[in-house]
């Protein structure tokens, strides 16, 4: 239910002016847009059609305005991106900070999603682009850039295992582990390792949150099992060490920067895409300690 007086308050115009406009439209259409009830107004079927058309017109006008600004070369607009949890710190926030300094007219919405949800949001065009593991289908997605990420042990600085560049999965026997839980993308890789190697691990803690796992490792609760991407910031700062798990059954995971194949990025989205794409290689393994900083 709605009322003309409430609409007048929202729009800061007189109630009589709104009523007059509604009556004019109803006269032109030859049918009422509202049922006038003692408790207020309710849309008729014709009114619902008109409301939907109005919403579509507003979106079309926003798209037209964005395209006109593109023609004028104005560096402004809004860009939505989807990223996985591992990217909620480090490179992406640093890239956004740099973008805001260079292009203050561009606003950015960041959705931190589970891997499959980030992929779907990109395919459906709910965001301008996404960064996630294993794009799988190339029919619906255009891969703009990709890097390889590996699974490994995460240890506090000074831990003996952390001094090794690579180690077999069996190296964790006798140690308490902090492992990812579903729906984190690496959960299945650990299950594959257990099944193929026959190694029985001592799960001290499992968590579906990367920050929780890294915090527990830092506190000395146990050895973590994560990807090189998950701890790239902490390793570069000297807070944690990363040792690649070298079992042949494992293959690198592909982290991809993708757009929907059916969607042409706006001018603003193109700027943000290019900025993030330029530094994307720094997310790959091996982690370069003296590489670009990701604050």
TrEMBL record:
UniProt KW keywords: DNA-binding, Transcription, Transcription regulation
One GO cellular component term noted in the UniProt record for this chain: cytosol
Pfam families linked: HTH_1, LysR_substrate
Gene3D superfamilies the record matches: 3.40.190.290, Winged helix-like DNA-binding domain superfamily/Winged helix DNA-binding domain
Residue ranges of every copy of the HTH lysR-type domain listed in the record: 1-44
GO molecular function: DNA binding; DNA-binding transcription factor activity
Entry superkingdom: Bacteria
Family statement drawn from the similarity comment of this UniProt entry: Belongs to the LysR transcriptional regulatory family.
Protein name, per record: Transcriptional regulator LysR family
Lineage: Bacteria, Pseudomonadati, Pseudomonadota, Alphaproteobacteria, Sphingomonadales
